[in-house]
Amino acid sequence: MRILVVDPAYSLEDVRDIIGGAGEVAAAATPWEGDDVVGLLTGPDFPVGEEELARLPALKIVATCSVGYDHVDLDAAAERGVWVCNVPDYCVEEMADSSFALLLALLRGVVALDRSVRAGAWDHTAAGPLHTLSGTKLAVIGFGRIGRALATRALAVGLEVWAVDPHVPAEEVAAKGVRPATLDEALEACTAFSLHSLLTPETRGLIGAGELARMPRGSFLVDTARAALVDFEAVLAALDSGQLAGAAFDVLPVEPPGPDAPAPERSTLIVNPHAAWYSPATEHEAYRRPAVAVREALEGRRPKDALLL
Fold this sequence. Notes:
The chain has 309 residues and is α/β, with parallel strands linked by helices. The chain is 33% helix and 17% strand. The chain folds into two domains: 2-90 and 280-298, NAD(P)-binding Rossmann-like Domain (Rossmann fold); 92-271, Rossmann fold (3-Layer(aba) Sandwich). The longest helix has 19 residues, at 280-298.
C-alpha cells in the first residue's frame, strides 16, 4: 500500500514516522496514479477531482493540510467511499490576528503612510482620512471559528460588529454581542468588511461590482479567506474610483504571482503572501494532522478530522 504526498511542504520523514508500518510513503509524481495507492496527502493548491480519483481505484482517504476543502470534489469522493479530511481548527487565532491587523492597518493608514514616507513625503494626510476604531461598523462575512475570533477582537476595541452568515441562527450571533444581518443590510450600513466564508458555488463572486457599489463610499475590504469570493478586477476598479478607500488581501487569484499574473499594485492595497495562517506551531499542526488522519483510516477507524457532510 502506498501513501502519496502531493504537497511538497510535507516532510516525508515526519509522515513516515506518523504512518508507521501502515504503508509506503512517497512523493507523488504527476499524474497521480496507481492501483495500490490508499492515501493522498494534499494541500489547497492541488485539486482532487473525478479524474484524479479515477486513477486511484484503491484510494481510502484524501487529507488536506488546510481549513478549506473546495479543491476536493466531495461528491465524487463520497461516491467512491473515500474519506475527505481537513484541519478545521488549526489556525483560528493566527487567521483572526492577521485579519484584525490588516483591518487596523487600513483604518489607520499604516502601510500607505509608510509607503509615502519611503517615497520622500512627510504628509499625515497621504493615506486619506484616518478612521477611529470606536464606532466603525465591521461586517464579518462568514461567522465560523475565524469570524467569531475576529469579532471578539473587534468588539474589545470598540468596533460595532455585524455578522452575515445564513447558516448561523440569529440568536447564536446575538449571544456573541454581534448584530446578525443579511448581506444586503450590511452593504448598506457597514464601512468595513472582512471575508471568512467557505468558497462554495453560492459564495463564489460574493462581492462583485454590484456589491461594491452598494457599500458606503470610502469603505474598506479585507479578504484572508479565498480570492474567488470577490471579483478581483472590480475591487481594483473600486480602489481606483475611491469607492473603496482601501483593501487588504492575503490571497490572490493566481498564487504565487508571476510575469503573466503579477501582484496588483495600488497605493491603497495591501497584499500579503498567503501568510495569515502561519505561525511555527500551527505549521507543524497543519501537516501533522492529515498524516494522523491517514493512519486512522488505514487502521479501519473513522478519522477524527473527517468532514461531516
